[in-house]
Amino acid sequence: MRILKPTVALKSVTDITPKLLEKLGTDAILLDVDNTLAPPTSHIPYEGVKPWIENIKNNGIDIVICSNNYKKRVKPFSDSVGLDCVAMSLKPFPFGFNRAKRKLKEKPESVLVVGDQIYTDILGANLAGMKSVLLVPRSEEHGFTIYLRRKMEVKIRKKLRILNEGEY
Ligand SMILES: [Mg+2]
User: Fold this and answer.
1) Which residue blocks in 5-143 are alpha helix, DSSP H?
2) Ligand 1 mean position, distance from CA 39 (Å)
3) C-alpha 33 – ligand 1 centre gap (Å)
4) What is the domain partition of the chain in residue ranges?
5) How far apart are CA 28 and CA 114, in angstroms?
6) For residue 167, how far is its CA from the centre of ligand 1 (angstroms)?
7) 17-61, pLDDT tens digit by residue?
8) Cα 135 to middle of ligand 1, angstroms
């Protein structure tokens, strides 16, 4: 189903290069946190995330963190990596993305959504008319709803080709 397909599938957030962003016509990124930048509940980003953020910002791309998690989890993390944030985004519904878009003053087609979940990040991006990058989840997760969403992702993920640098 088209509405569940990301524009690009990559392994890690750090695989997103300025070159790829140029190709996609990206001026701003809406970034997920849990399992994208850091393990769920952890305040320590995955290796390479901090320099990656600096590099992307130095290339003139705006970044706003957009998470479904609570403000008390999202805000301290965003502050620690020097980014603005929208917590309780309610992805895949457009409320959070619209709030972030207003902060950025960008058209939806120049905004790239980056995250690890098809039924929140990618579906939300497609509903909002934004491009998207789906990542491979890196940490173990607990809870029944995430278990169900991951189960529903299996078939779609099987059909996706995960690109490596050099292929874009
Ligand atoms: Mg996530």
Assistant:
1) 18-24, 49-58, 71-80, 95-104, 123-127
2) 9
3) 6
4) 2-159
5) 11
6) 25
7) 999 999 999 999 999 999 999 999 899 999 999 999 999 999 999
8) 9
Around ion ligand 1, residues with a beta carbon closer than 5 Å are 32, 34-35, 116
19 Cα–ligand 1 center, Å = 24
Residue 131, strand partner residues: 112
The pTM assigned to this predicted structure is 0.96
* Cα 60 to ligand 1 centroid, rounded to whole Å: 25
Give the right CATH number for 2-159 from 3.40.50.20, 3.40.640.10, 3.40.50.1000, 3.40.50.300.
3.40.50.1000
Buried b / exposed e along 40-69 (16+ C-beta atoms within 10 A): beeeebbeebeebbeebeeeebbbbbbbbb
**What's the gap between Cα 75 and its chain centre?**
16
